[in-house]
Amino acid sequence: MGRLGLFVDRQTLGNSEQLTALIKLRDSAESMGHTVYFIFPVEIAKIGKVDGLFIRSRTDPMNISFVAAKMAELRGIPVIDDPASIQICSDKVNMYLHLMQEGVRIPETVFVRKGELTEKDAGDLFSELGSPLILKEPSTSFSLRVEKVHTVPEFLKTAKRFIKMSDWIVAQRFIESDFDWRVGVLGGEPLYACQYIIPQETFKIQATVNGHVVYCAVKSAPLGEVPLPILDTAVQAANAIGGGFYGVDIKDKDGTPFVIEVNDNPSLEAGEDEHSPGLYRKIIGHLLGDGEAPAGSGPVR
Fold first, then answer.
1. How far apart are CA 185 and CA 168, in angstroms?
2. For the chain, what is the total number of helices (H) and then of strands (E)?
3. How far is CA 276 from the centre of its chain?
4. What is the DSSP letter of 151?
5. Contact 193, 228 (CB under 8 A)
6. Which of the 8 DSSP states describes residue 178?
7. Which of 222, 235, 237, 217 is nearest to 192 (CA)?
8. Residue 264 scores a pLDDT above 90
9. Which CATH number is 109-173's, of 3.50.30.10, 3.30.1490.20, 3.40.50.360, 3.30.300.20?
């Protein structure tokens, strides 16, 4: 049968929820007759000896996880997530441009350059997009460097801080909601769904409030109970990025879905699998196919 590589780091294994998810994945693979190998960054050369690679460390073009993805791709080894998806999803300008090109509905969005950070430009944005505005630094993850601004001075203060880290910042119309849908899409098919309940103290799924980190609650949902427009929009958004594994975040505004973000290689450790117990087997099947190892191949050492 096949050899599945799980590319991890000590930070991943140091999180009890992530470790539990990895154990579920390993147990599922072994029940299917496959062999599982945990591959740490110092063992990256072992990637060439597996039949499929599932990256479970932070994916970013500046991280070694991207090198792992590229090594797998160059060797023709199926990998989640692939280098192209990592590059697109790690840059929100790139991601939104892909969504726009495919006609995916997103909140009204404007890309702002350094030379456009004037009081007049900010006033024009408020006139166009309304108040408050959402500002995002393109390389942000886990809701970091995502801020809500209500006035021109707030806009300029936040934007000038963000523009130090990027040539562009993203300004979006604010869509209020009590929760975000998160739909996992694998190979163009819905895999699982859940609701991320927005904490009352913030507008984001994760934020620091009064020095304490506040996380959203996660409510898993059977796919059959998810509104069809949400599922259809999630698949459309995922397909705009590629054919891998994505977590699509969607806000439902009076029955109209708006894609907030597409995440490559999304989390599985917060209870997303509660109503989709077969999702691990589907991920493994996507990577290993029929599970047949190449002729003459042996264990990973």
1. 29
2. 9, 15
3. 18
4. S
5. no
6. S
7. 222
8. yes
9. 3.30.1490.20
The tens digit of pLDDT for each residue in 145-202 reads: 889 999 999 999 999 999 988 889 999 999 988 889 999 999 999 999 999 887 766 6
CATH 1.10.645.10 for domain 3-81+284-288, yes or no, is no
pTM over 0.70: yes
By CB atoms closer than 10 A (0-12, 13-18, 19+), residue 88 is buried
If you ran DSSP here, which 8-state letter would residue 294 be given?
P
Quick one: tokens of 6? 């799980």
Query: What six digits make up the tokens of 189?
Result: 């098919």
CATH 3.30.1490.20 domain extents, the chain? 109-173
Residues of the chain within CATH 3.40.50.2300 domain(s) are 3-81+284-288
89-104+176-264 classified as CATH 2.60.120.10: no
Nearest one of 182, 185, 184 to 198, comparing CA atoms: 182
Cα dihedral sign for 41, 46, 48, 52? Answer: negative
Integer CA distances (angstroms), 70 to 8, 79, 226, 287, in order: 15, 9, 35, 15
Measured distance between the N- and C-terminal CA atoms of the chain, rounded to whole angstroms: 17
**Which residue's structure tokens are 């479970």?**
56
Q: How far is CA 240 from CA 31, 157, 249, 261, 283, in A?
A: 33, 33, 14, 12, 20
Q: 70 near 87, Cβ under 8 Å?
A: no
pLDDT at 293 over 60: no
Cis peptide before 180 (omega within 30 of 0): no
Residue range 119-155, pLDDT digits in tens? 999 999 999 999 999 999 998 776 678 899 999 999 9
